[in-house]
Amino acid sequence: LKVLSHIDSVLRSPRAPPLIYRRSKGPVQNYIKDSGQECGFEHLPLTIEMWADQLMALKDLHRSLRKLSLELVPWHTGDLQDSRESIRVEDLQFIVDAILEEIENKEKNSQKPSLPTLFAIVSHFQKLFDVNSLNGVYPRMNEVYTKLGEMTNAMRNLHELLELDSSAPPTVVVDTVGKLCDIINENVTEQVQQLLGTQDIHSIINKLEEHECFFPPFQALIQDLLCLLEISNLDDILPTVRHLK
């Protein structure tokens, strides 16, 4: 009875879990009342059995967590052995904390590309710029960089010459250059018309035909005169003829 009372005092301790203490019922409670003592541990065998099952499950959980930890953080599990006789909650908490810490570090470093990602990037570059081998990646990169620099400088100069805003897209630059070409072509046509003294395209054609008929005989005559007078300059023809006269 004294041993039972001592157990009862342990069960009533503030540190004891509420699960292990219940008020006695039935004949055992009457017996305790008759003896002048009250204790509540008649249900403890079932509770102890449950705890034993939990302790066994704790070992299985520890084994599973350790396998997971070996995959994620193998450098944290060197001092943990499966052959330990007793597994503490602190051991499990240590493994979980190590895994959580590794996950947090991976999330912080998630911006760093992995090897498969880098391989995919290189393969994509090879397809875009028709590079057959890895040795040709760097030369093609340099070539693309050089061409890009040249195009950037050309676009910057065109923006300045055309007095366009630096944010104007290439399509606007192309349209502006096209309009300038149209204006230049129109001016050239007007200048040709003024030079030939006509605004009629048919008159221009007639003048060109007349020139084509007149110029070859005239050129042949001049060549004959140069040979006959033994001179090479057109300006010497008249002085030579006057001298002969």
Span from first to last CA? 168 Å
3D shape: rod-shaped
**Quick check: average pLDDT?**
77
Helical amount: over 70%
How many DSSP H or I helices? 9
List keywords for this structure.
70% helix, 9 helices, 245 residues
Structural description of this entry:
The termini are far apart. Helix 3 (44-72) packs parallel to helix 4. It is built from nine helices and no strands. With 245 residues, it is mainly alpha-helical. Helices cover 70% and strands 0% of the residues. Keywords: Coiled coil, Cytoplasm, Cytoskeleton, TPR repeat. This is Centrosomal protein of 70 kDa. One of its GO terms (molecular function) is gamma-tubulin binding.
In short:
It is found in: Cytoplasm, Cytoskeleton, Microtubule organizing center, Centrosome. The chain is mainly α.
